[in-house]
Amino acid sequence: MKKTALIAFAFLATSVFAQDTANPLSTWLKNAYRNNHNEMLHAAEKMPEENYGMRPGPQTEVRTYGQQVLHYVQFNYLWCAQAKGDKNPNAATDLNKITAKADILKAFNDAFAYCEPVYNSLTDASGAETIETTLENGRQVRNLRMALLIQNYGHNNEIYGIMTAYMRMKSIAPTDPRPGRGR
Prior knowledge:
CATH class: Mainly Alpha
Order of helices and strands: HHHHHEEH
Shape: globular
Mean pLDDT: 88
Distance between the termini: 28 Å
């Protein structure tokens, strides 16, 4: 028992010290973004296609499950493009026309593939740089690059929370039970 505890402690200590201590905030954000993406992907894959058109009630202004996933796509492209200093490569795509689960999952993975290098290249110093961003209403504002990417991560987390509520309405556990996760 003591030997197992020592091995576990050594592993944890090694993983803590192996982290990028020169860039603690950006390292944390990269890992948080990736973990959140993986949870969302698992939930999106687990939800049966027949539920992708589901709304939690009769209100048509409330997004369907598939539209929630596409909302992730929309804002990951928007905010990562701005953090990168590029034009949004997905701006001309009409996400309302994408309804099949396979197409939604492809768009989801494409958005992640576009954003991942933005997060991977982030350092604490580059995150502290002020950049010009455009809000949905077209207004230009100055923001820290890291603040924009933290906003993206937080927004993704909110979408994941909504996705899990839809799944629970269908008696589907959003993630597989893992020790200590409480889900």
